[in-house]
Every structure is written in C-alpha cells, then in structure tokens.
Amino acid sequence: MSTSGGRDNHHNRWSASLTALFAAALLLPAFLLAADRAAAIPPEQLPAATIVFENGGRIVSIKADGTGRKVLTPRRAKTMIETGIRDSDPAVSPDGQTVLFSRDDDSSGSVDRSKLGLFSIDVDGGTPTQIRATEEIETLQLTTYTGGFAWAPDGSRIYEVEYIVKLVPAGWPYAVRTRIISMLPDGSDLKVIEVGKTTFKNEKPSGDLWIASEVEPSPDGSELLVTRIPMNGHAQPRIDALDLSTRKSKVIEKSAFDPSFSPDGQRIVFSTTRDKVNESCYEGSCSSSQQLYLMDADGSNPRLLLGKVQPWNFAEPDWSGDGSRILLTSNKASVTTIFGDEIWSVEPDGSCLSRITNGSPASESGSWGLTPDTSPTGCGLGMGSRGVAEVEPPAKIADLEVTPLWLGRNFGLLLFSDYFVDRSNASFTYWDCSWFRNRCPATIAIGSAHACERNLEGELGNGAYQGMVRRKGGLAVMTGSVRPSLSTIFLADGREVWITSPWRHDGKATSRAWHMKAIDHLRPYGASKPPASFEAPVFAWHTVHTARVMVRSFRRTQSLKKAAVRAGIFRAGMGISFSYSRRAAQAWLRFSRDLARLGPVKSVECRRWANKPGTIDVRSDFRELIR
Known about the structure:
This protein is mostly beta strands. The chain has 8 helices and 45 strands.
C-alpha cells in the first residue's frame, strides 16, 4: 500500500517555499465512458474503502463511493491562496487507524513554530497529537521545516524529510541542511538516514545540488524512492532509489516526482511535466499541467497511465493497498485550475476514471485507508451530485462601511471559491464548477465598494463604455467585452459593484445576459436571498460633474479633444499624467449623453483621503444643460 505523504501540491508548495527561502536558487459526463463499467457493482458488498485528503487547510475523510464525508481537523475552510494555519498532505497508516499530516503557518510576520510540524490523528477524528515540532532558533538564525513524510510498510516507523535553514540578516550567504530521518510513530528513536548540505554565496549554490523533498518506501522496506529538487537552475525534479542497507542512491527517472509503488512492488506511478501541457513561462521558469505515468520498479518502460496526454492536470497518485485503483488529484471536471481540483480514482490500466469529491474549496492529496472495497459509484462523475461550497469568508467583512453584495455560496453550477477583502471593498469569485466543464457557464467575480471608489471612471478612461440599462432598481453600466474580460458595473444603494467574466468561454463569446442574470441574483452579504429591488443608483459627484462639463463643452466647441481637456479627463493627478485618447473621449461623451437621458440622479461628494463620504443629492438634469 502506498502511503506517501509528500504529494504534488506539497511539492509545489515546497518549491515555492524554497524559492522564497533560497531567493533565486530554486529558481465528460458518465455516459461518455463505458456504460458497462459505470453500472458495475462488486458481487460482495464489502465496506467502502476510506480515503483521507486535504480540503481548505483541513484534513477530511470520505468513503470511496463518495459517502461518509467527515472533517477530521475542524477549522474555517480556507481558499487555495489564503494564508494562515493549514493542515496538509495526509498519509494513512498501513493498519488504517492513524493519519499523519503536516501543520504549517504561512502567515506574514512572527509565527510560533513550536505548534507546527508533523502531527497524527485517529482516522475517525479526535485531538491531533504532535509528533515532531518545527523550530526557530533566533540566536543561531536557524529554522526547521517539515518536508515529505511516509509510513514504513509495516507501520513500525515514519520516514521524513527535514530542512534546517540558516539565514544571515543580509540574505547571503546561507546554508540549507537536508536530512532524511526515521522515527517511531511517537517521534522517538530518531535515526538519520541521509544528510545533505547546500551553501549559497553570491546567490550561487555549492555542495549538494539536488536535495530531497519527498520519500516513498518500497513494499518490502528495502529502499526509499526519493524525489529530489535541483538547487542550481530550472531543471525538473527527479526520482532516486535509495538503498536503505548501503545508503547508496541512484537516479531511476528524470523529470519525475510524487512516486507511489504498486503493492507488489513491481510498478511505480508518478507525476511529471515532461509533456509540457499548457506550459507557461516567466523569467526563465516554466510550469505545465502534470500527467501521470507508470514505469517498472527499476525505472524502465515509462508509459502514460491514461493512454494519452490529457489537456488537464493529473497529479498526486496513491496506489491502493489491494492494487485495484489509484487515487489522484485532477481539475478535469472544472473550468479552472487550482480552484477546481478534486479527488479522483482510476484503475491501473487507465480505465474507469471516476470523481470522488465535489465542492469548494479544492480537494487534493488523497491517501487510501483500509481498502475492503475501492469501487466508486460508477465511472465518470462518480458521486455525481452538485458540489457544496464550504469556503468561509472572514469575519472582518462585517466591519466594512458598506455591506458588499455577492451571489451566495453558489450561482447555478458555480461555487463560491475565493475572496478578497480590504478596508473599503470586498470581492467574491465563483471559479469552481460542480459539473463537467462542458456543462459549466463562464466563471464570474463580484466586487463591491462605495461609489467613491470610482471604478466606473477607470473603465471610461479605458474607452470601454458600451451603454447603460436600468436593472432591478439600479443601473447596469456595460463596459469591457474584449480580451481579457467582459465586465459590467452595477450601481445601486450607494454601491459600485463590478462584475467580470472571461471574454470567451468554451469557444464562444461570453454573453452580457450572463451578467444581467448575476445582477438579478445579487444580495447583501449575510442575506439569505436577493431583494425584490435595490435603491436608486448613486454616482460619485466627480463623475457627474465631469460628464456635465463634457456635454456642455462639446456642445459649444464641437471638438471632442477640447471638450475632454476642458472636462479634465486627461488631467495629471496623483503624480500620473494621462495622454489624450480619442477612444476614451468618445466613451465619456457617450456616457455623458446617456446619463442625461436618465434625468436627475443622486451623487455622493467624496471627501479626499477619507473613506466616510457624506451623501448629497445633485439635481443633474442634463436635458436642461444641453438645451
């Protein structure tokens, strides 16, 4: 049974963490699948296998048939990019009774590392037990971190990769010591298997240029598969085989990581980016969607698990103890990448790929528990139900001066996925889909702020204005509809709400009607349903005044440029100078004329450098102005 705790996202997180620490050093639906497989039911109704995985910084368990979901380490579910305490990389013991996991805190500022490190918890939940703590020794400028970890095949010991980082205030030089250690399940009887040391001077590494990041023991316990990452450039990780008796290591596969043994020890499944699927590069570093490969135990005969290269991400494999299925993490059913990851399983011949989890936040790093019956409910969607959004926005949203609008925890098939909050505004994103991607609408993001934020003026300055319509008591201002996004600004109740989606989805242009539907579903945060209607729109007084001057000046001069200059549209401010743009001037003129047709509107006088504007009524009867 494969029980490696060092998974792909763990690899990604550690690559990112090491990059930060070492500066530049690291550097379709079920019917489309075979119907006979989808309907298969094991003749013996054995108990469904347990799967443990990471979800929103929590450790969660579920049955292989998608039932029995339980949160083992309860706390507020975090988004994929949210900082704070996060439990990750679960690994179930061979007897199926205990779960190892890593607890870390990526918050900015001071962090008490004594409460972090390697933990264990009963597979049914309870109070976690700290096995090994990370440390920060300020006097020696040393910090320890937990890398990958795994159970020995008989559950008698735990293998772990440990990093000891020495920093110097100036940043260079510094050293990184990497140890592969083993210990009893309670953390005692620590034994060192391998030590590596890398020193940096003038940003150049010396010493060990390939450091361990993950470990996976062979079923017979004779060797460890060690994922090593490069310290001297942008090469891909590799897999080494470390003989535990001789302590000698040899490379068995390049451009490979996250290995998992078959129970008989004859085959290995691993992740790789060698096919460069969806590759993107920035400043010399490239990233790609991962694919899963099989190879023989000696590294020979590598072949794709799913038969051919797939356009999605497939990562974090874990072979079941009975050898019947392989767990993996994939975004196959989603329209996005990191926000749509779910736990799937597949047979070793690449057939009957089935989704097991479904919801937001993303699920990843699956580990098999006891495996009486690893069968899913069917191939394809697996459990097939609509997903549940569990992402919890922070309490500080209630402290905002203006209560933001959002779409609730789901908008049709889209699930609430992420948020951003600062002192004056909040945004909510719906980037995860609870069905297969060809059934999913375009993703959508909703942001709210006081009208004084004047995002509308920014869109006018970009020349993106396309008209306005009354909607649900407010005003929908249609702006950008070209790359990279379609955007609409909704003005109501003194708020300025911006709605954005990709300009194209599933090969077609995103319809403006999609945003109008979103407006109909908007509600104040905390409300259970949308209101029947919103209050009238309120503009920033500066926007109304600029539009008034623009219309008046153009009527007098018949010059677009003169009118725009007179209105101050391209006036320098805040140290920024704006050159004249005919497109922007045309957008402002069209907006000004459309605003005139509304008759009197409300506006707010925004106090400079303060976020508490006083509201005033402005009788902006443009029909009188242009007579």
